[in-house]
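seq as requested:
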Amino acid sequence: MHWYTYVRVVLEILVAVGTLAVAVLAIWGQKIRSVLAPPKLVIEPHNLSGDPTVLRQLDNPQAPGMRVMYYHLKVVNKRPWLPVSSCRVVLKGLTKRGPDNLFHPVTMPVPLQFVWAPAEITPPTVTITKEHVLDFGRIVEGGKCFQPVLYSYLNNFQGFVRPGEAVRYQLEIQAADFTSPRHHVFEVAWDGQWSHVPEEMLKHLTIREL
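struct tokens:
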């Protein structure tokens, strides 16, 4: 058998293997990619200086609105070639600063889910390809506390931040094929003062990632 015959046989084998590989990738490509490089979602700050907003009454839009300062985080997909479906962010735990300036665990029997932004049109779970913004918390003019934005609250919920207090929130990403390998922790401290100007409000309410 001449050398070019061997070359032809090798090329035919390579073509067959390549055709098979293309078929496999077409059918199981995303599954293979998810095994070799699984989804990677992280929570990052989006707007921790505050977003001044005025909430209007839907039944009376001419009435003076309620001034609110909103704070946002975002969930970022570090591998956007793997969209992650049925994604939500839950509050898994709380610690609150005590008189000794140490943070102590707060009892929270069940996780509570944060609200995706904009809340008016976004369902409780989303598919994340690149990133999606989350309503982390808000504080109303004349209000008595910083309030994490959750779909529901327990009757004995202790995660509000009142004047002079500081709370650390432990957040977890949950999705169809993904759960955070660790909790993302954000600390909120407030001195009781309020302003509708973000630069001024930064002097009174601070949010930092730990």
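The chain has a mean pLDDT of 86.
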